[in-house]
Amino acid sequence: MSDTTLLERQDRAGTATLTLTRPDAYNSLSLELMQALHAELDRIASDQDVRCVVIRGSGKGFCAGHDLKQMLGAGEEDFYRCTFDTCSRLMQRVVSLPVPVIAQVHGVATAAGCQLVASADLAVAADTARFATPGVNIGLFCSTPMVALSRAIQPKHAMEMLLTGRLVGAERAYEMGLVNRLVPESELESTVDELADTIASKSRKTLQIGKQAFYRQREMSLADAYDHCSEVMVGNMLTEDAQEGIDAFIHKRKPEWKHR
Question: What SUPFAM superfamilies has UniProt attached to this entry (predicted)?
Answer without folding.
Answer: ClpP/crotonase (SSF52096)
